[in-house]
Amino acid sequence: MRLVTYRANVTAPARLGAIVNDLVVDLEYLGDVSGHALPDNMLDFIDLGPAAVSSTTALLDEYDGKFPTGVAVPLANVKLLAPIPRPRKNIFGIGLNYVEHVEESARTLDTSKDLPKQPVIFSKPPTTVIGPGDAVEHNAAITRQLDWEVELAAIIGTRASRVSEADALNYVFGYSLMLDMSARDCRRAGQWIYSKGQDTYAPFGPVIVTADEIPDPHNLNLSLDVNGVTKQSSNTRHMLFKIPTLISDISAGITLEPGDIIATGTPEGVGAGRDPQEWLWPGDIIESRVEKIGEMRNPVVAVGGNDPRAGRE
After folding, report:
1. Mean pLDDT, the chain, as a whole number?
2. Sign of the CA dihedral with 39 first, then 44, 50, and 53 last
3. Closest by alpha carbon to 138, among 236, 284, 291?
4. CA-CA distances (angstroms) from residue 219 to 121, 240, 242?
5. From 48-52, 101-105, 125-129, 255-259, the region with the lowest mean pLDDT
6. Statement: the pTM of the whole predicted model exceeds 0.85
7. Do 300 and 281 contact (CB within 8 A), yes or no?
8. Burial (0-12, 13-18, 19+ Cβ within 10 Å), 302
């Protein structure tokens, strides 16, 4: 399934839907007319467990695209939000997880040239999350080095504590696209959370594709453009630590819970690694995509009342 959180109009509440062809099927409404109890939000659906994915997929298939009146609306007529508009806890970010990104970071940032021997883990607060089309904020009073990172996100579906790598993918609910926006000049004594955890720094979406539709998450193309120019283009096969390793490593000491998000790292091509370095500014447009998941378009806007051009090279 391709699951979304959507608004039918600007004043409507956020609701859970599934994309079928060019329609968004409201799952709670579908459950009402078919005698199946289904929730109206993504986190409650994830909480139902793996059986809910297979049973809901079968229910959607029964209608063969012909849904009762009021159950489905055209995709073109809705506003897609972040699939999980507010995660229950911080997003787990993974740093330096593509070999070439390790190399470019070592050239221009204060990171080691040696490949990490264990996953590098940081976090992004729930307040970083925005959805497709939403604006990334550029506060010139805080940063002159706003950077981009396109990533595959894995969403946990089952409580995971001390799981083995061999079993780890069984704990994944689905996959999505996330941007790990980074203010490179806001790192503090080697700590990354203020650099990566500012408001709007995690564009997320446009859908969650359930894990049954992506049996191999390590063979997906991912890319990012700025103002129509490709900056990143790679494949998830180049991850240094694959998703089973990440889940096993994190869950060895931190219990992963349904709805938790792991942003699995970014490939080479970030602005900090370019010569000369490139940064995002108000008016720029970021377009990102992951194969089998979809794409997002997010503008950059000025906030904070400061001239964003001050000090721009």
Report:
1. 94
2. positive
3. 284
4. 22, 13, 11
5. 101-105
6. yes
7. yes
8. middle
